[in-house]
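Justification of resources, computational component.

The compute hours requested in this renewal are based largely on the per-chain cost of generating structure records like the one below. Each record pairs the submitted sequence with a full structure-token output. That output is archived, and it is also reused by downstream analysis tasks.
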Amino acid sequence: MKLQELLKNISVCEIIGDSNIDIKGVNIDSRLVKEGDLFVAIKGTQADGHDYIPKALEKGASAVLCEVIPAKTYEGITYIRVKDSEDCTGWIASAFYGEPTATVKLVGVTGTNGKTTVATLLYNMFRHLGYKTGLISTVCNYVDDIAVPTNHTTPDAITLNALLKRMADKGCQYVFMEVSSHSVVQGRIAGLKFAGGIFTNLTRDHLDYHKTVENYLKAKKKFFDDMPSNAFCLTNLDDKNGMVMMQNTKAHIYTYSLMHMSDFEGEVLEDSFEGMLLNINNREVSTQFVGRFNASNLLAVYGTACLLGIPFEEALKSLSLLHPVVGRFDALHSNKGYTAIVDYAHTPDALANVLNTIQEVLKRKGKIITVIGAGGNRDKGKRPMMALEAVKKSNLVIITSDNPRFENPQDIINDMLAGLDTAQRKAVMVNADRKEAIRMACALAQPQDVLLVAGKGHETYQEIKGVKYHFDDKEVLREIFKDEI
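The structure output for this chain reads:
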């Protein structure tokens, strides 16, 4: 593609060299640059891409897009100076890959909790209804039925557009995508055309990056602010920020709620560890999900399906056939008669939701034992809050390791314990070895008890000192169950 075609949607401050050259690829990583590529130099949080311009040129880049033109320039290389190279990357990537979102209906899901569940269930529903569908999520990306491993909730702009092109080329009619706050701030979704956006909820998370809850909210809100007038926005009225998100959107606004009058209303009629009976817009539907937070997620899925033109009876029928997402309130039943639940809950609010659900279903017929840790090199402020939520809603808590990353696991545990007073600490045990902590919990569990193993959910690894070791909470539980009489 001609370089000038790639630049058509961005504001250029200066060009040195020929803008009519052919560009064979676009890269933000100098290690991936090939002959004839455009290298985009981004000032990242960990490294500055401008420092890698010489490396990119050495590998064959024929053009460089940057915020500061190098002191030394070379003949035959085109330099494009822009105000914000990070913000331009999405537009350039979209142009290079033929604007794939012009041919697919892309729906973004954002919020602190529920993104993975809502996006994945929509993907499963639309595939069940016979549509070729794509999924971009924390757990795994899918190009219809082909799995594509993922490292981020929302990939970088170039990877993202390449993936969307694969989906468009495969004939996908719909794509459901998790939209992280990082991706909005970093311009990863710039240049994409959204048919719709869903807001689930907003609670404290990622303050290691955003610094304040207000900044975090603004990042989420910007997604809806930028939504086009021909799109729809579906928001959760049960969240205090539900309508705040909609204040400046040009899109058509729709609502869902378990507590208020809304476009898509729901009520939990019956709840057990096997599933829920729901009333949705005055129609009953039996589901395989547990808990009010999942009832809210299912309402978002149902509402989105209807807004995309699926007849409501068909949408309800599909809802009843859906299975829970891996690592989200995943229930396993032990030989001793207790239930173990594996859940990704890694924020205070998500943990509270899961424990509230267990309390509601358990009805004091057994004890709740919670195994919980917190991730290293992330928001430290939520660690004592998570410990407190666990202790308030459990009979016994075992604090352990999660993904310590580059931190000492004991330091993370101490941060969690700091949120508890002397009396509360009496309901807490500590074991930094996650496998042993789970084994302890299983040994203490009695028939009718519920054991919650929280924080990692679908993850099949533990990250320690930069190395990912295989670790799967469900696998560990199944091993322990085999040894139970």
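The longest helix spans residues 292-307. The chain has a mean pLDDT of 93.
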